[in-house]
Design a protein that fits this description.
With 719 residues, this protein is α+β, with helices and mostly antiparallel strands. Helices cover 50% and strands 12% of the residues. Strand 17 and strand 18 form a beta hairpin. Helix 5 crosses helix 6 and helix 8 packs across helix 12.
Length: 719
């Protein structure tokens, strides 16, 4: 980390340039990179930036973000630059275009030698040994760099690495029962963890099977057929238990027999519809007719819904263990149940694993031999391979740094890309086209409400837009309008087009506007526009209120006339001409007073010397437009980029100004192409009507008459 004192102890001669109102360091040579750690952080343009919302390679950002907190900070930048400089012979090679010659890697130290060996091996995997150059695109498909028949250092061993058919078969069994882990080659393989889990499960299965072998007569009364017989027994166990419980209850109290058998009404319900062999209502009936201590019939008299299961019970369980018979007593049923008790306990202890599907003899052979040790040795050899995954990652890291690192520095240590104008900065998301202008200062926004609390301190006129595109999720952007005029233009709901850095177009809808002055020219006309809008609004309100009053009066008159006609009242009084004349006289007096005031003002102007008239006009304009222009100048003077970036998670360390000339370059206005021909004829232009001219002439004549009556002209002519 750099010293607190500016460049204390630094032997490097830094070069600075001034742009955006502050000094920025030039990063032009390998020496600048080598000594970057000596540059005082106070001279850095930014101290941190997020890893999201940037037009920058996300993989490179992930490599730079060593602590994984989603922020790139000064120490991480310095560490990355120092490592990259140490890995190459000449740091000037880092000013590249993403094509790194392997010969540029410094193999004079151990780490560099390992890295160069790995890079050489990667060239061989890719078939680029003759070219000797690695590019970022070479790492898009990592499986190309690793063969499924060679170890690669990731600790995953696919079957192809075994080199032995028996070992390959065991690896396949482990993958089938434990799940495969993808190898760097793309093939599924085993790891130390899956190897240990497999053999633990194999030993558990073998121990479980040995328990059955040691007590075969008790646990497996029917040998290999015991499993099928147990399933047939369990299929009817609950129903047979229910039958014998009912029969014992009938023996206890003969009066219960009628209630324990199905009621006759149940059969009446069944008789009203079609009945199937597996009908649920039939299956719910007792297994057979209930009687006191009655044995269970096995052929005739069995509930048809259970006849198949009972027949299977006889063939697979009763006949092999007790012999063939027509009925089964309670004592015989309890004897059969006891024969399967040990089997049920044994099955409850059955290990839950897919290893049961493998051949038992093969499992015995795998455990008794040295298979486990040989597979563990393969995994260990893979982990220690020279072309390890870590080394391949380091090669990719260096290639990405060679392409991207200087670009990041010119957007982090300095803002030369933003102020240079040759390319967009990494925080510029694209171009917004709206209202015959293009906005270049556009940023992605993840939280519009949070962003809008800090961004207004930038002093920029901001337009927040929601952008949608078919097949993609919606995004939110903010654009700064830094040129032209925007009075009452950027209202929420307006639509435009956003073109991102990949050339894709999005439909942009304005959802929020933060109004700020855009130019001194706009501020000059702003008061007049506001007064005009106010007058127009008041006239609209006045006309609407008069129209409403007339409508209400007309309705009231009609209702009153109808009521008087129905009541036989007298007609309204005749029109009073004197009252009407008085109203017009009052209006005339008001117009005269206004005309007199105007005449007095104009007379005062005519009383001034000719050279004083322009001064009066300038003073009036200054009084009206001056405050607005002053406020605009103060706002434009403090307009800067910092709050816009800070609102997106940056830590900007400088007051990056956006002055008027630079602001105009960030917002383009519509202009006709050079050499274009323009026709001023508009077939749908508003028709010119002479009444405005006549009205002006009448007003001028009235004004001149009033001035003549007051003797103004006589005074001017010396009469």
């Amino acid at each position: 980390m750099a010293n607190n004192n500016s460049n204390a102890g630094s032997t490097h001669a830094w070069r600075f340039f001034r742009c955006g109102g502050f000094d920025q360091v030039s990063i032009e040579s390998g020496a600048d990179l080598r000594h970057l750690g000596e540059l005082d952080p106070k001279l850095w343009t930014a101290l941190s930036c997020p890893t999201t919302g940037l037009e920058f390679d996300s993989r490179t950002l992930a490599l730079l973000d060593t602590d994984g907190d989603g922020q790139i900070r000064v120490p991480e930048i310095v560490a990355a630059v120092q490592w990259a400089c140490r890995m190459v012979k000449d740091p000037q090679a880092l000013f590249g275009d993403g094509a790194l010659p392997v010969e540029a890697i410094d193999d004079s130290h151990e780490e560099g030698a390992v890295l160069k060996a790995a890079a050489t091996q990667v060239l061989g995997y890719l078939g680029k040994s003759e070219a000797g150059v690695l590019a970022v695109d070479d790492f898009a498909d990592m499986t190309k760099m690793f063969s499924p028949t060679h170890v690669n250092g990731d600790g995953v061993v696919p079957a192809g690495v075994a080199g032995d058919e028996a070992l390959a078969k065991v690896i396949g069994d482990i993958v089938a029962t434990q799940g495969g882990v993808p190898d760097r080659s793309g093939e599924p393989g085993i790891t130390a963890e899956t190897l240990d889990a497999f053999f633990e499960q194999v030993e558990a299965v073998l121990a479980w099977r040995r328990g059955a072998a040691e007590s075969a007569e008790l646990i497996l009364p029917l040998g290999e057929a015991t499993a099928g017989a147990a399933d047939a027994f369990e299929a009817v166990r609950a129903k047979v238990d229910d039958y014998f419980a009912r029969c014992r209850l009938a023996a206890f109290d003969p009066r219960a027999v009628e209630g324990l058998n199905a009621p006759v009404a149940a059969y009446g319900t069944l008789g009203e519809r079609v009945i199937g062999a597996g009908d649920a209502e039939v299956a719910a009936l007792p297994l057979a007719e209930i009687g006191a201590d009655k044995p269970l019939p096995l052929a005739k008299g069995v509930n048809p819904a259970w006849a198949g299961q009972v027949a299977q019970l006889h063939d697979e369980v009763i006949e092999p263990l007790l012999g063939a018979r027509e009925a089964l007593t309670l004592e015989e049923w309890l004897e059969l149940s006891a024969k399967f008790d040990a089997y049920r306990v044994w099955m409850a202890d059955r290990p839950d694993t897919q290893v049961h599907d493998l051949d038992l003899a093969q499992l015995e052979q795998v455990v008794s031999g040295d298979t486990r040790e040989r597979l563990a040795a393969l995994i260990e050899r893979d982990l220690k391979a020279d072309a390890s995954a870590a080394n391949i990652d380091a090669v990719e890291r260096l290639v990405r740094y060679q392409r991207d690192l200087v670009t990041l520095l010119r957007n982090f240590v300095t803002m030369s890309e933003f102020y240079g104008g040759e390319s967009k900065a990494i925080f510029q998301a694209g171009t917004l086209y709206l209202d015959q202008r293009s906005c270049e200062l556009v940023m992605r926004v993840s939280n519009m409400a949070k962003h809008a609390t800090l961004a207004p301190f930038s002093g920029c006129y901001l337009v927040y837009c929601s952008c949608v595109r078919a097949g993609a999720g919606p995004i939110e952007i903010v654009a700064a309008l830094t040129g032209g005029e925007v009075d009452e233009l950027m209202v929420p709901g307006r639509n435009g087009m956003f073109c991102d850095r990949q050339g894709l177009d999005w439909k942009a809808t304005v959802v929020k506007v933060v109004e700020q002055p855009v130019s001194i020219r706009q501020a000059f006309w702003s008061p007049y526009r506001r007064v005009g809008a106010m007058v127009e609004n008041q006239l609209r309100k006045f006309a609407a209120s008069r129209d409403k009053d007339m409508e209400n009066k007309a309705a009231a008159n009609v209702a009153g006339a109808a009521a008087k006609a129905d009541g036989g009242q007298a007609a309204p009084p005749p029109f009073d001409i004197a009252k009407f004349a008085g109203i017009f006289a009052a209006i005339g007096l008001a117009v005269g007073a206004i005309g007199t005031a105007l005449a007095a003002a104009i007379a005062g102007l005519f009383s001034l010397a000719w050279w004083q008239l322009p001064l009066v006009v300038v003073a009036m304009v200054a009084i009206i437009s001056g405050p607005s222009m002053l406020l605009a100048w103060l706002t434009l003077r403090r307009r800067n980029l910092g709050p816009l970036l800070d609102a997106n998670g940056w830590a900007v360390n400088a007051r990056a100004r956006i002055n008027l000339p630079f602001g105009e370059s960030l917002t383009g206005l519509a202009e006709l192409p050079a050499g274009s021909k323009r026709s001023l004829y508009d077939p749908f232009a508003d028709k010119k009507r002479p009444w405005k001219a006549w009205l002006f002439l009448v007003a001028l004549a009235v004004l001149l008459f009033l001035l003549w009556r007051r003797g103004v002209f006589a005074g001017l002519l010396g009469g």
